[in-house]
Amino acid sequence: MHGKKAGKKTARASKSARAEAHKSHRQGKLHKPHKPRVRHKSPVAAPLSVAEARNALLNVDDLPAGGTVDEEHLDGQYHVQQNLFGMKAKSASCRSFIDRTNRAIGKPRLAVERTLKESSTGDVTARVVDYRSPEAAERAMSQLRNVSGECPAGVTKDGAKVTFARWSTARAGDETVGNKMSVFGMPFGDVLVRVGAATVELNFSKSDDAALISQLTNKAADHLRSAAR
Q1: Partners of 194 in the β-ladder
Q2: Contacts with 89 (C-beta within 8 Å, 6 or more apart), sequence order
Q3: Which strands make up the sheet holding 122-130, listed edge to edge?
C-alpha cells in the first residue's frame, strides 16, 4: 500500500513539475521584452540637378507634328521665384493671399524653361521648377488652385492685367491644377503638375484642343517623373 501511495505521489509531483515548467515557459513568452517596430519611410527623391530639370522639359519630338524651339532658358536660375511673385492687387485680401503663400512656398532651388512653336498647336511653354521640399511644392499647387477664388478681380504684373479662372484638365503626376489665364486680354491655358518636390507648368497659347493638352500634360509628367527618380 505504501509503495503504491509513494508511486502516486511521485507521479503527481512529476506532473505538477511539468505543468509549472510549461507555465513558466508560457509566461516567459508572454513577458518577452517588446521590440519597437521600425517604420521604413518611403524614399524621397533627391533634388533635381540642372541637367535633370532640362531633360524633364518638353522637346520638339513631343509635339505631334514636330516644331521648333522658340526660346529657352536652361541655366537653372531663370525666374527662380514664387508662382505669383511680383504680382500686385488692389484687394487687401488678395495681397494678403499672395504674400502669405509666397512666404510659405519659399524660394525654389532652380527653374528652367522652354517654349516650342508649331503652326497647328501654337506656342507651348514648359517650365520645370524644383522646390526645397514636397511641402513647398504642394503650397505652390495650392496657390494656383486657389488664386481665382482669392483674387477674383485679378492681379497686375509689370503693368499687365492678369486674371485667372479654374479650368478642368487631364490629371497627371501626384496632383494637377488647371487655370484659364488672360494677359492683356489674350487667353492662355495653364496646367501645373507636381511630382514630389518638383513641378512642371505648361502654358498653351491655344487652349481649345483638349486631346493635345491631355497628351502633352501626360508627356510632361512622365518626363518629370523619370528625372525625379
Answers
A1: 175, 199
A2: 95, 98, 151, 153, 154, 155, 156
A3: 68-73, 110-118, 122-130, 198-204, 186-195, 175-183, 160-166, 155-157
Cβ-contact 220, 58 below 8 angstroms: yes
> What does each C-alpha distance from 210 to 32, 85, 168, 182, 222 come to in angstroms?
62, 29, 10, 18, 18
* Pick from 65, 107, 99, 110: nearest CA to 200: 110
Whole-number Cα distances in Å, 152 to 21, 172, 222:
78, 26, 33
Average pLDDT for 83-111? 91
What pTM was estimated for this model as a whole?
Answer: 0.77
Extract the C-alpha cell encoding 122. 501654337
Q: Which residues contact 171 (CB under 8 A, 6 or more apart)?
A: none
Alpha helices in 31-91 (DSSP H): 50-56
Q: pLDDT per residue over 192-208, tens digit each?
A: 999 999 999 999 998 88
Contact by Cβ (8 Å): 193, 171: no
Confidence of residue 190 (pLDDT cuts 50, 70, 90): very high
